[in-house]
Amino acid sequence: MNEHFFTERGIYYRTNDFRPERTTLLLIHGLSGSSSAWARYEPVWEREYNVITPDLRGHGKSLKPGRYEEYELETLVEDLELLLAKLGVNSYVVLSQSFAVLPAVLLIRRHPEKVRAAIFMSTVYGIYSIFLTRISRLIVHVAASVCRLFSYSNAAGRHIDYSKFPRAGDWNMRRIFQDIPNTTWHAWLFCLDHGYARDLDPLWRDIKVPSLIMHGRHDQISPLVSALRLAKNMSNARLVILENTSHVFPIVKPDEAREIITNYLRETLG
């Protein structure tokens, strides 16, 4: 994979050598993560697909703007749209995990004619109905409002090696306290607050592209019942439940997740 930097948007990304006859995969990591979450997917998929793995703004080696408004979901989507345009990509598969399903849904709704399929991993669908979420939304909003009073460096961070956390659960403090400080607290809070502010649940029904929903049975961030409900509300979706794992299954069970996705893409895309 080759490293690049999209200067106009302050976005770091990786690609392999594109071939026009191959399907393109756009892999979008979750909140406080980075493209290094896909490190054990890229070497396999780059042999069969064109692969794009960006760091969302504020994450990994992308810049970390200091203004709250610069983390709106629409701005994250614009980053992806402009990156795809820069690379000349007009047809692709979107893979997203956790928080990233929010910009992914907006991207798909804007360009349904370009999206061949969608993979949603550890979705946050229905999370607004959870009592704990309603409490945390208020706390996050207050903290983000305080953060808006200060100025920040927009210097890029680094990539976390997730292979060091083979058994990390959803609340593994060792992983969390590498992730969030690397993202920076202001970028993490601004993204999270913007995510909480938008209830995109009604938009999922409009997604008609072939979709795969993947969820860990023991997800402690977004309960399995939410994924079950989502699968019923989408007309062209398949649900796969991964046993004995949680919200962070993409980094703790990469081989299993990759095999499921690869088989689905071969079956769906031909």
Descriptive tags:
single chain, 270 residues, alpha/beta, Rossmann fold, eight-stranded mixed sheet, 9 helices
CATH homologous superfamily (4th level) name: Alpha/Beta hydrolase fold, catalytic domain
Q: β content, as a range?
A: 15-25%
> Helix-strand pattern, N to C?
EEEHEHEHEHHHEHEHH
User: Percent of residues in helical segments?
Assistant: 25-40%
CATH architecture: 3-Layer(aba) Sandwich
Count of alpha/pi helices: 9
Describe the structure.
It is a single chain. This protein is an alpha/beta fold and 270 residues long. It has one domain (2-269): 3-Layer(aba) Sandwich (Rossmann fold), CATH 3.40.50. Helices cover 37% and strands 17% of the residues. The chain has nine helices and eight strands. The chain has helices at residues 42-45, 73-86, 101-110, 131-147, 173-183, 185-197, 224-233, 249-252, 254-269; strands spanning 2-6, 11-15, 24-28, 50-54, 92-97, 115-121, 211-216, 237-242. The chain has an eight-stranded mixed β-sheet, with helices on both faces. Helix 1 (42-45) links the parallel strand 3 and strand 4. Helix 2 crosses helix 3 and helix 4 (131-147) packs across helix 6. The longest helix is centred in the middle third of the chain and has 17 residues, at 131-147. It is globular and about 50 Å long. It starts with a strand and ends with a helix. The model has no long low-confidence stretch (mean pLDDT 95).
